[in-house]
Design brief:
alpha+beta; elongated; nine-stranded mixed sheet; 13 strands; 6 helices
Length: 233
């Protein structure tokens, strides 16, 4: 098994992040720092990450978390901030698939299935992502249409989106937006591009998965049908 897949199978992180850990010299094979990211783990090899021996998890688990604000989408944080894996009740190691910003809430998948994570995070694989937004000021129909048609967010023009204006008061607008890419801070950058910085942001849907009535900070196991859906699409 290739080393990045081995690390992902142990529930440490995704394959992509595993490659970064190898580059940083955090992975050892039989006591020696691994220099070859293409290394294939052999029977009897002792694999260590950050000084701790790891082995693949035998049982694959899949969780849907309603991420609160103030949590880092990672398995560890150098600044000591709370991380999303702290919210998983079971002792099995998992890692987040993709990311949500520190102050963004909502739907996040966590698993120890490195193959599925690698598939879902591949650039060619795009789920519709639905967000509930509270934006500064009153977003007009014309501005919503601009968002739907695509806006320049700094060297990148977004693909067509779906935008529904729900309500507004004097100072802000509540809207739903569904995007098809996953650029860094994309929704925040889109609304800023039309003059309405985001005040609050929550992801409420990913493909046909929804946050439902799950409270912030709570997670649940995905059903077999939901897992099959993620593997199939």
């Amino acid at each position: 098994m290739r080393i990045n897949q081995y690390i992902a199978s142990a529930g440490i992180t995704s394959r992509r992040k595993a490659d970064e850990m190898i580059e940083e010299g955090r992975v050892r094979i039989n006591g020696a720092v691994l220099l070859n990211p293409g290394y294939h783990v052999q029977d009897g090899d002792v694999v260590e990450v950050d000084g701790a021996r790891i082995q693949p998890e035998q049982k694959k688990v899949y969780y849907l978390l309603n991420k609160p604000a103030g949590y880092v989408t990672s398995t560890a944080d150098k600044e000591g901030r709370p991380v999303v894996t702290d919210l998983v009740p079971d002792s099995v190691r998992v890692f987040p698939v993709g990311r949500l910003d520190y102050n963004t809430t909502g739907l996040l998948i966590l698993t120890n299935d490195g193959d599925l994570s690698n598939k879902l995070m591949h650039p060619s694989h795009g789920f519709d992502k639905k967000y509930l937004v509270r934006a500064n000021g009153i977003v007009t129909l014309a501005e919503a249409k601009r968002l739907e048609e695509g806006v320049d967010i700094g060297g990148f023009v977004t693909s067509p989106a779906e935008v529904h204006l729900i309500k507004h008061d004097r100072n802000s607008t509540i809207a739903e937006i569904t995007i098809h890419e996953g650029k860094n801070r994309q929704v925040r950058r889109m609304f800023k591009a039309v003059g309405h910085p985001v005040l609050e942001l929550s992801r409420i849907g990913l493909g046909n998965l929804t946050i439902g009535k799950l409270a912030q900070g709570q997670c649940r196991k995905l059903s077999p049908a939901e897992v099959e859906y993620l593997k199939r699409v």
